[in-house]
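Minutes, project huddle
Topic: does the predicted pose make sense with pyridoxal-5'-phosphate bound?
PN asked that the exact inputs be recorded in the minutes so nobody has to dig through chat later. Recorded below.
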Amino acid sequence: MPKAQETILEIHLDALTHNFNYLKSKLKPKTKFLAVVKAFAYGSCSVEIAKHLETLNVDYFAVAYTNEGVALRDAGITTPILVLHPQATNFKIIIERCLEPSIYSPKILREFIAVAEEQKQNDYPIHIKFNTGLNRLGFWHNDVDYITSHLKETKSILVKSLFSHLAASEDESEKEFSLRQIKDFKTITTDFESQIEYLPWLHLCNTSGVINYPEAHFDMVRCGIGLYGFGNSAKEDQNLKPIAKLKSIISQIHMIEKDETVGYNRAYTSSGFEKIATIPIGHADGISRQFGNGAGNVFINNQKAPIIGNVCMDMIMVNVTNIGCKEGDEVVIFDGNHKVSNFAESIETISYEILSAVSQRVKRVFYR
Ligand SMILES: *Cc1c(COP(=O)(O)O)cnc(C)c1O
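Predicted holo structure (tokens), as shared on screen:
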């Protein structure tokens, strides 16, 4: 691997293949695989990730917002795409670009049927989302009659799947709650199926659900974070490979005397003669200000360098007093050995947030 010469996010597609195959190995052969590629595929690059997953014969994609689905269609992705969180204002374009909406409320159902009829659609595929305890998006069990009565009145839509989402699938201590969600999902979908003449697919599990609830895979699973290399537990992380490595370079080194300050607001004061390195990555690149003032570390020549002072928009300063290094040396923010999950823990957040925050300004470099 050539050394980074500027701030780059390396994306390793061989690791993606590994993670996809590992997650697939947890499924029955007939269970379909939906890859969640929302938020630029968790901060990597949704187009390249989707193209690669198409070569691996993934069954479905999901994005959160309509424009994310449009971007995939613009790039030539032909696999079905579920839009998890559409708004009524997007429905015309959803139909135009063959995207499939998650329908999560009575209002959204009425609005989608109106647009589908106006666009003279027949059996347009939709996905019905039920709330089983996350209390975020979705119909309640007692909406089933309302939904099916609307289905009987229109030929414009066809329910391709019924789904729900687990609230704490990674948390062993919430097992009882997850099992109740699984049970409620079965009850709701059985009720739904008894009122229509075809059988939509059922799906419930995200990555941790796939790992922890093999009895709840149903017809399809929806994996995001696992594809990108994290299993929400130290044990599962060992079976997966992080696809993204965030690297940078030392732009400049300053030697400073005792009691000099570093950065905006003079937030850091040196305690002696110190060596400070400046790195071209800041909060506009996705390094939250919370990493400042010693909270986070980067790695230079495999040694830990604490981020000192305030994180700037376009740079951070790190203390390299005890590290043999020079201007132009590579800096690792996270990679396969220095896990993003540890970096995330240093500011009490999770890998999902750090990965998806790597801004579009950071150059992506792909390895096949
Ligand atoms: C984001 C999301 C997923 C993927 O979850 P992971 O934990 O990343 O596997 C699955 N389903 C829904 C509804 C989501 O919003």
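Observations noted during the meeting:
- The chain has twelve helices and 19 strands.
- The first strand starts at residue 8 and ends at 12.
No decisions taken; revisit at the next huddle.
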